[in-house]
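User: Please fill in residues for this 90-position structure.
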């Protein structure tokens, strides 16, 4: 079985049908007479990639959330300790 060669524009349009128009991979592959395997590979190659700036913001946001959680826990422990020592002066 000889594999078909598709032009790059064809592949990009096929990817857009899935990523922008909401069609399923199986539906697009069947309609365009290609395999789902090929279409998934095209999506990986031509699909939208998040800009690097967004990745940096996402990781920074996760880091800040983690730090906020840690600091909030520390604050709560210090509040409990302050109440304990205020009620039990020795």
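Assistant: Residues filled in for all 90 positions:
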């Amino acid at each position: 079985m000889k594999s078909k060669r598709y032009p790059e524009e064809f592949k990009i349009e096929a990817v857009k049908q899935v990523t922008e128009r909401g069609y399923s991979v199986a539906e697009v592959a069947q309609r365009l007479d290609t395999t789902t395997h090929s279409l998934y590979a095209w999506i990986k190659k031509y699909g939208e990639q998040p800009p690097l700036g967004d990745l940096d913001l996402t990781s920074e946001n996760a880091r800040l959330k983690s730090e906020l959680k840690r600091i909030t826990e520390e604050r709560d422990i210090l509040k409990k300790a302050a109440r304990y020592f205020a009620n039990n002066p020795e």
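For context: Helices lie at 8-19, 25-31, 36-46, 52-87.
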